[in-house]
């Protein structure tokens, strides 16, 4: 149940008319900060949550901890007991025990849930046989909260040639700046690029010459990250629902939009289990390769 009836949203106060104090523990995966300041992102998040809390009668004190992967999160979980956790989707799927948390929200951008990745080139024509790309140089986008571009390319190469991209291509470079990923390909300094479709389309809108690049392959839609909350143990269910409502409406508030800009999100929408299907299939494919 994500939202109460509208009557629940009146501001609460204690008997002295003061805001009710609440403590919130938040876990953030390190990969959310590849090209942004942790301090800036943490400050933006705290400002937004405190603003939302105050609107509904709460004085929210927030502690934040960081983790590198699902193994480190598991080791910290019992000590930290987080209320809210931002996961890269790959790590969420890999979590051995998710009984403590439930996935609630995912990113929504350009009218869809998830990102599609493109393999583009100036050197090769549209839909060229992938075997012709052997020995080429490739730039791979590796942005905040996601390593899915490289994993998709790795799976694509393995599925056709039984070898990884590092063995198939002459040079594999990663960059978290989409401009630095695509421009070397546009100017002929690199042969290929893997880039999110929405970022490529935006650059092509600003510079139509980008449309001269060939599209050699495209991925399924992959959800890059998920926001989870603890399933139970909330001292106040009203406060719990205020947090969910605040997250869902983040794009409507100035402080929320500032945070979403830092995290490169546009909107959050309720999670559905089927959103994980394509990433699960990708992870399973790479697991089969690693076991062979």
UniProtKB/TrEMBL annotation:
<dbReference type="Pfam" id="PF12974">
    <property type="entry name" value="Phosphonate-bd"/>
</dbReference>
<protein>
    <submittedName>
        <fullName>Phosphonate transport system substrate-binding protein</fullName>
    </submittedName>
</protein>
